Queue: 2 jobs
Job 1
Amino acid sequence: MLDDAWVSKSITPNDWRSIAWSPKLSLAVVVGETGTGTRIATSSDGDNWTVRTSPADLQYVDIIWIDELELFVSCATDGVGNGIMTSSDGINWSSRTPAADNQWLSLAWSPALNLIVCVANSGVGNRIMTSPDGINWTSSASPADHVWLSVAWSEALGIFCSLAHNPVSDNVMISSDGINWSLHSAANLYNWTSLAWSPYFGLFVAVCQLTGTGDRSMYSEDGINWLSGNTPADNNWRKVIWCEPLAMLVAVASSGLSTDNIMYSINGIDWISWTGSVVEEWFGLTFSPELGRFIACGRTGATDRILVNEFPVISAEFIEPIPDLDLYRIRAHNAINGESLGLGIIQKKQGTYHLPVTGNDPAFVVSEPLINSVWKPNMKVGLGFILISNDPNSNPHLWRCTTKGTTGTGSEPVLNLSGTTPDGSAVWTYLSELPEPEIDGPIFPV
C-alpha cells in the first residue's frame, strides 16, 4: 500500500523544471527557467532549500548527476556559448560551451561508453551532441530535425533512445554509440515528453501530453518496436523515472487533479493513479534511496513548488556472493506475517544498501542476483545482460552477454560452463552457478 501523504514544501517561486539527486553528496539540486542569478537550489532533505548562484540567467530545463564523473550537468534552451553548466558540489557552478547554440532539452549518461548525450529542439542536422566529461562537447548528426525532448540509456541493450515531441511517424531514434542514430516509429503519433529505462522490467517506458485517451504511455523491449500502455488519466505527463529501490516507475503531470496528477506502474505497462498530491504544474521528479523520498519540482504555486513523499527505509550490510555481478534484487518481507514490504534493486557490490519499504514492521530481507531473462530465440541483448537457462532446475547457472546482438532462431544452445558460447550474433560468457538467496534480519525500518 503506497502512502498517499504527498506534502508540499516551500522554495523560492521560480519556474523549477528539473531535479537530480546525488548519493555521494546526499544532495538534491533543482534548476529552473526563471530568477535573477537564482536558478539553482539545493537541499539535503527535500524540506529545506537554499538558492545558489547560477552562472547565467538561462532557461535550464534538465539536470543529471553522474556517479562516475562525480558531477552534476545541466542544459538550457538558450544562451550563447554557455548553454551547459556543471558542478561537482551542487553549489558552485561553471558555464560550459555546447557544440552549438541550440535549444538543449535533455541529457543522458552511458557508463559503458563513458559518454553524455544531449538532444535539442533546434539546429539543422546537429540536434545531438556528446561529451565524455560535461565540459568538452562534440556535435553529432541528427537523422531528423524534430523536437527531441527526452533521451535515456539502456545498459542491458547498450543503446541510447530519444523521443520527439512531434507527432510524426519517425519520432524515435536510437544509437549504440551516441554518434550514429537510426529513426523508428513510436506506438502512436503523440506528443512524447519523457522516457526512462527499467532494468528490472527490461523496458523503455515513455509518457506524453496533449494527445491520447487512456494510452498516454508506451513501452518497448528494444527501442524499435513500441506498444501502448494503459494510463488512468489523460493529463499532461511531463516526467517519468525508474525508481530502482522500489522497483516501479513513477510519472508526474502539469495538469490534472490531486487524485490523479501522479501515477505509478509496477510492470511498465499498466498505470495506477497515486492520490494525495497537490494541484500544481509538476515538471521534475527524482528519488533519494538514502532519504526514502520522492522529490518533485514544479513551476506554479505561491512558494510550494516542491512535493515530497517519504517511505520508511531499511539499511543493512550486503556482501555479494558473485564478485562480477553488478545488479541484485532485494525483497523485504514482514517478519511477523510474511507480507511483502518492498522490492528493489541495488548496484553496489558490497556495503550498505537502503531499501524503502511500505510499513514499519520488522522485516527479513532476501538478496539474489538480478537476472534479465531466461533464454529466448530472436532476443536482442546488450552488454552485461544476465541470462539463465530456460530450464533453471536442471541447469542452475548464469551467463553474461559480452558481445551484444540477437540470440539464435532455434532452440536454446548448449551454454558452456566455462569460457564463451556463440548464440546468433551474441556471445555469452559463463558467470557462475546460481547462488542460494542471502537472507538478513529481522531489521527494523527507520
Job 2
Amino acid sequence: MALSPVAFQPALLRRLEGATGVPGMRLSSARSRAFKKVARVGAVEALGPWGVGNVSQARRGDTLPHTFSKNYVHVIFSTKERRKIIRKELQPRLWAYLAGIAKNHDINMLAVGGTEDHVHLLFHLPPKLALAKAVLLLKANSSKWMRKDLSWQEGYGAFSVSSSNLGPVIRYIRNQEKHHRKFTFEEEFRAILRRHGIEYDPRGLFG
C-alpha cells in the first residue's frame, strides 16, 4: 500500500532505527527539516546509507542545458542476398550520395567505402538520432536513388569506435578493395564479430 504524506515520515524514521540499530534515534535539525519537507510532498528522490531520503532542489547551475556526446559507429551492411551489383564505376557516386544523406540529417560521416556487395560507414551519431533510424535513412534514401538496381539486406552490423582508433578504421574502410583481394565479405564480417566478442549462429548469420 502506498504511503500517505502523513505516514511517510514515521515510516522512514523506523527504517533509520533499523539501519543504525539505535531505537528512537533522532535526526539532526537539518535532517528533520528535510524530512518534514519530504513528508509534505510525499516523495523521496533516493535513500542514502542511513535509509534517509536525500531531498534536492533545482538551483541555478544545477541543471545541464545542453547535451554532449561523442558516439562514433562503424556500420556494415550488404546488398540483398549479397549480390555483386555495386559496380566499380558507380561506387564513388554511391559513396558520395551516402555522405550527402548523412549531412542532411546532421550525421557527421567520416568514411564510406566497400565493394560490389557491401558497404562500410564510419560516422558520428548525433544524440537526437537513434542508430536504427540513422541506418534506415541511409539505406532507404540510397536505395531510392539507385531505384530498382539496389536493395540492401534487412540487418546490419554496428560497432562503436573510440576516438583513438578512428584513424585505423578510416584507413580500413578506404582500403576495402585491397582488403577483399584476400577475404570475402562473409569472412570479414565473421572476423569483425569475433573481434568485438559478439556471439552469433553461423547457420543463420547471412540468411
